[in-house]
Amino acid sequence: MHELKKADRITQGYEYRRVYQHGRAVIANRLVLYVLPRQGEPTRVGFVTGKKVGNAVARNRARRLLREAYRLHRPQLKPGYHLVLVGRKRLAQASYAEAERDLLYVLRRAKLLQC
């Protein structure tokens, strides 16, 4: 249905670096969104959690929360952007509802939602 295929994700290190260096950041309590406009390209996303988030189990859980919240709201996004979602330490203990709330907050602040 709303599958997140490899073509929809940022996979290369140089692509992450480009978004970090040339994009702008929108900050929430539990995550940071980096946005880089890419006209003529589909919206692509990358998910990152650093070691400060916790052990591998906590980092994977945080990324799963971000992926699921993004996957469900992806049809509402404007096309033509590269996004990097960085989970912060608080995300590891967050519920799905809290993660979704923060994701929608940063997407609204970045003016990426169509409605």
From TrEMBL:
EC number, UniProt record: 3.1.26.5
GO-annotated molecular function: 3'-tRNA processing endoribonuclease activity; ribonuclease P activity; tRNA binding
Gene Ontology CC annotations of this record: ribonuclease P complex
Keyword entries, A-Z: Endonuclease, Hydrolase, Nuclease, RNA-binding, tRNA processing
UniProt key word Nuclease: yes
InterPro entries tied to this protein: Ribosomal_Su5_D2-typ_SF, Ribsml_uS5_D2-typ_fold_subgr, RNase_P, RNase_P_CS
Top-level taxonomic group: Bacteria
Gene Ontology biological process terms from the UniProt entry: tRNA 5'-leader removal
Catalytic activities: Endonucleolytic cleavage of RNA, removing 5'-extranucleotides from tRNA precursor
Similarity comment text for this entry: Belongs to the RnpA family.
The protein's assembly and partners: Consists of a catalytic RNA component (M1 or rnpB) and a protein subunit.
PANTHER family assigned to the protein according to its UniProt record, in alphabetical order: RIBONUCLEASE P PROTEIN COMPONENT (PTHR33992)
Function as written in the Swiss-Prot or TrEMBL entry: RNaseP catalyzes the removal of the 5'-leader sequence from pre-tRNA to produce the mature 5'-terminus. It can also cleave other RNA substrates such as 4.5S RNA. The protein component plays an auxiliary but essential role in vivo by binding to the 5'-leader sequence and broadening the substrate specificity of the ribozyme.
UniProt-recorded name of the protein: Ribonuclease P protein component
